[in-house]
């Protein structure tokens, strides 16, 4: 079990304040890591860091801004002197101001270019920037683990029938932007794994399944019916996978995509 220990390791988690981001932070802290909580709102990062361990660091950062990420690295090095783990968790999903137009605007034919660009900027370019700036420090040190969070939608196409109500009405369409961005993350993982393998930096992807989060009843029912385990994920269901990928327990694993989805992509 010592292989799973992260004692004295330093872990930066982007998107720390999101639905599963907080659980990622808790899992790493429970395994012994010094956790750097990072998201857009620095005050909330500082507040959440206080709930982890006495030495956890809260640091606001915009992953799509290189200067902001460089400042995040500096704060981390000033406090801890190194970085051992980078968890690229920050991401956004499609969001429409008018719920009444969500079905129409989420159709591929109508999907706004502005939303496509914004999602790529955060979900893909953000992973690139964090990996380039923070990962380089790890490569120069000669070891480290980068974990990129993708999605089952980076592996298989969205099932649009999941978004149909009980009476057969299409409430929403899953847009092309999110799946494309997550597929890019998986491809980028393979690139980095091959590029930095000789430097002792391992790079892997975690592809989670859908997490239950007060969605409409029809969606939860549709999703659960398609999943062999018969339910959506809980935010805590990814804690073990995160610790595994971050620790020496996965020391011979790089360039891989660990799918944790209750069997959703198996059928």
| Separation, N- and C-terminal Cα atoms | 33 Å
Please state the overall shape, judged from the principal axes of the Cα atoms: globular
Radius of gyration equals 18 Å
Question: Which fold name fills CATH's third level, the topology?
Answer: Rossmann fold
Helix content: 25-40%
If you average the pLDDT, what whole number results?
97
SSE arrangement:
Elements: E1 10-13, H1 21-30, E2 34-37, H2 42-49, E3 57-58, H3 66-80, E4 85-88, H4 102-106, H5 113-141, E5 144-149, H6 177-196, E6 201-208, H7 217-226, H8 239-246, E7 257-260
Helix pairs in contact: 1-8, 3-5, 5-6
Can you describe this structure?
This protein has 267 residues and is α/β, with parallel strands linked by helices. The chain has a single domain (2-266), classed as NAD(P)-binding Rossmann-like Domain (Rossmann fold). The protein is 39% helix and 12% strand. The protein has helices spanning 21-30, 42-49, 66-80, 102-106, 113-141, 177-196, 217-226, 239-246; strands at 10-13, 34-37, 57-58, 85-88, 144-149, 201-208, 257-260. Strands 3-2-1-4-5-6-7 form a seven-stranded parallel β-sheet, sandwiched between helices. Strand 1, helix 1 (21-30) and strand 2 form a beta-alpha-beta unit. Helix 3 packs parallel to helix 5 (113-141) and helix 5 runs parallel beside helix 6 (177-196).
Brief write-up:
The chain is an alpha/beta fold.
Descriptive labels:
267 residues; single chain; Rossmann fold; 39% helix; 7-stranded parallel β-sheet; 7 strands
């Amino acid at each position: 079990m010592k292989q799973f220990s992260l004692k004295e390791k330093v872990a930066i988690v982007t998107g720390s304040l999101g639905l599963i981001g907080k659980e990622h932070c808790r899992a790493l802290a429970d395994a012994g890591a010094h956790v750097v909580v990072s998201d857009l709102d620095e005050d909330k990062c500082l507040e959440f860091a206080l709930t982890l361990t006495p030495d956890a660091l809260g640091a606001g950062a915009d992953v799509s801004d290189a200067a902001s990420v460089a400042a995040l690295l500096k704060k981390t090095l000033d406090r801890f002197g190194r970085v051992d783990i980078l968890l690229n968790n920050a991401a956004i999903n499609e969001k429409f101001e008018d719920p009444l137009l969500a079905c129409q605007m989420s159709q591929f034919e109508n999907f706004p270019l502005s939303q496509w660009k914004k999602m790529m900027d955060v979900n893909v370019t953000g992973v690139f920037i964090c990996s380039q700036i923070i990962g380089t420090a790890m490569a120069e040190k000669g070891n480290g683990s980068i974990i990129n969070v993708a999605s089952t939608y980076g592996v298989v196409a969205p099932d649009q029938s999941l978004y149909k109500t009980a009476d057969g009405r299409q409430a929403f369409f899953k847009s092309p932007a999110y799946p494309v961005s997550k597929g890019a993350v998986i491809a980028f993982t393979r690139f980095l794994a091959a590029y930095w393998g000789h430097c002792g930096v391992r790079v892997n992807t975690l592809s989670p399944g859908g997490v239950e989060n007060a969605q409409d009843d029809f969606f939860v029912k549709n999703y659960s019916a398609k999943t062999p385990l018969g339910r959506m994920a809980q935010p805590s269901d990814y804690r073990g996978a995160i610790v595994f990928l971050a620790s020496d327990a996965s020391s011979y694993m790089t360039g891989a995509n660990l799918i944790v989805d209750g069997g959703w992509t198996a059928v």
